[in-house]
Amino acid sequence: MSEISSMLITHTKASIVEMENAWHGGIDNLLMHLKAHQLVEECAVLKTCNRVEVYVVSPKGSKVLLEFAKHMKVSSRIIDFLDHDESLRHLLRLTSGLESMIVGEDQILGQVKELYGLAKKAGTVGKTLDTAFNKSIQVGKRIRNETGINKGSVSIGSAAVELAENELEGLDGKTVMVIGAGEMGTLVAKALANKEIKVIYVANRTFDKAEALACELNGKAVRYELMENYIPLSDVVISATSAPHFVLTHEIISRAKEKRGKDLMLIDIGNPRNIENCVGEIQGISLHNIDGLRSISEANLAKRREEAKKAEVLIEEELTLLKKQYKRQQADTIISALYSRVETIRCKECEEAINKLMARHTMGDVEREVLDDMTHSFANQILAEPTKILRNAAEHDDERFLDAVAELFKLNGVKGKK
Question: Which residue out of 49, 215, 278, 347 is catalytically annotated?
Answer without folding.
Answer: 49
